[in-house]
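Recap from last week: sequence in, structure out.
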Amino acid sequence: MNFLINTIVKEIGAQSFGVFDDFIVENISIDSRSMQNNSSTLFFTLRGQNHDAHNYIAQLIENGVSFFVVDHIPDVVKGKANFLVVENTTLALQKTAKYYRALFCFPTIGITGSNGKTIVKEWLNFLLSPDYSVVRSPRSYNSQVGVPLSVFGINENHDLGIFEAGISSKGEMSKLEAIIQPTIGVFTHIGTAHDDGFDTLEEKITEKMQLFKNCEVVVLQKNEVIEKYIHQPTFTWSFDDNSGAVFVEVLAQKNNSTSLLIHYNSNSFSITIPFQDTIAVENAMSCICTLLYLAIDENTIADRIQNLYEVEIRLQAKKGINDCMLIDDSYSSDYQSLKMALDFLEQQKFYQKKTIILSDIFQGGLPIEKLYEKVALAIQNNKIDRIIVIGETISKYLKDVSNLISFASTAEFLNRFNTESFQNETILIKGARSFNFDEIVVLLEEKKHETVLEINLDAISNNLNFYKSKIKPGTKIMVMVKAFGYGNGGYEIAKLLEHNKVDYLGVAFADEGIELRKAGIKLPIMVLNPENGSFNAMIAYDLEPEIYSITGLQAFLKLAQKKNIASYPIHLKLDTGMHRLGFESEALDELISLLKNNNFVQIKSVFSHLSASDDVAFVAFTQLQFERFRTYSEKIITALDIQPIRHILNTSGIFNYSEMQFEMVRLGIGLYGIGNSEIENKNLQNVSTLKSVISQIRTVPVGESIGYSRKFMVEKPMKIATIPIGYADGIRRAWGNEKGYVLIQNQKAKIVGNICMDMLMVDITNIDCTPSDEVIVFGKNPSVIDMAKQLETIPYEILTSVSQRVKRVFYR
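Predicted structure tokens:
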């Protein structure tokens, strides 16, 4: 991407401050944390409901960025960079993308629908890449911000664009249409996603159809309800109506494949899709019809379609062998997604040493020398310690890069490379599908059983931003990562929080904080339940203790004096009504006396804990706690003449009593997608999904029993699936005997019989499934909130009970 910045000043209606005459934009960015930001970057400081990028301009200037699009110039950076001031920076980003898109003239496929957009886009890219130089949306970049960023990936060598567009409310699609400028439309499916943004289904369909208003044709499954809202020519297909362009007959479904007979233009040809489920077949038909419209030969279509693959759009972080961390991106290799993967590597690196295993780069749309020049620069910007390249092309063009090891093929790498050379490092594995890098992932991944807890890092970021939106810009935020991040994973989440610039982390015990320090976390860490015997270790690892008693304070002061330490940060806990830990009002005079004229410690914060911030029935008591906290803390502040951080709000406190935020708030369970009211939960995203697989399926006759103690007797023939997860993995035994269920093929399968230590059994009599099929134990459905209600407990207990033997997989 190259254009003079002066060309967009008028387009975006900007007022300029600085020198812009010769600046060529080579990179557009909206993420202050990206290591790709440099002196050629034009940075758009977006302001959202939960964030404001203007706060990071000073840091970006230090990192070399000097050109910004802003809605105001913060005082601290005036005169220090070049600014284009606009009313709305998001709108300016969209207008810039619209201008940039108009510089290129080639056919573009615009895809929308409620489901299947990303799959159809990826499959069309695979199917059409032999015939075109394709530019496409990376991953699921289909939003008001994602679409503009996708368009900036176009260069002069592309001759086909494939972009997806998603909307959540009225008035959005026309903006995306102006940016994508599609000539061919593909409508995948209409469903319930984002229904909240529309009053009726018709309103939602009408809005989506705005993407196609200038298209020469729209490809879709024949549907009279939808077609009446389309005013362009259509290319329709159907399983039961031969009045459209394509009529489809299903010949057979077996061995995870579907054989179809396609009738088109008075001709018929057979085709085999390597999937059986209905949605996959429908998505494949959207692709087939698009290829037919583009006049791709029928034999070519049949040959390529049989090689379709499951689309994986997530970047995943997994534990590897020899204490390594793997970033699994083993299914695509193009320049745009490489930059994203490198940013994810930096964000999630478990160790300072970074290795990348990279295949030949495809679909760059650039001359090959220029493409690999950019690849080398991106790798160097991220300070990769060891670069392993696989493929003859990449080996040739990156041969002069330092720390490079090259192999001609994946097989050569697997045969020659010693896995023991991978030790205590973070490894990004990124390769085109044809290189079969999944074999490398299998080789380097730590082997554990097939039950996994998947943690959605995007959802964590969303939930963090939601609670940030409830507090004032200057208020600090402490996030609790105790109990192994509420069962989700301590270090990985702490790393994400450090990346998102939270102010403090909170852990329960010193050993949790020590593990975070050993893993490289540098944020301030407060230990909430420090034992006197752990003070030595806490000082060694720069951990800050909560002090809640006179004896604890005396012990710490004695140690500090012995070590000749000055101004060590401590946090005073006040008891305002929880009656668990903390200084009561009667102890304040003695506390003040011990601290007065004492330079061994620094009172970093004074805080308390709310007992019932989640329950509106106790508003009066919560207000009493606020009054006590204000009185107690002001007494300490006045007597010691200090200005500590004060904090009392927990997750529910942030949501229900944001006016009492003081200088800091503490976010706990809400980060992990669990609030204490329906309104709160509507704004949160599910973070944790516990998955397993079917080990075995059997038919059990009448009169037999299932499980220990014969708790479940079979009254009619049943199909039973055994799942390799039990109470040793954290599934409460009380969840068995038809009280609980799992999800298989999106259908409820009741748990029958007692839950065993390592297994449970479910009724799949009416579910079409096979061994190795995926099983959802909890996630969106059943949610941990639903499970907690049934089990008469709280979601905390369910999350923190998930055993450490269950592998955690982190993804974006």
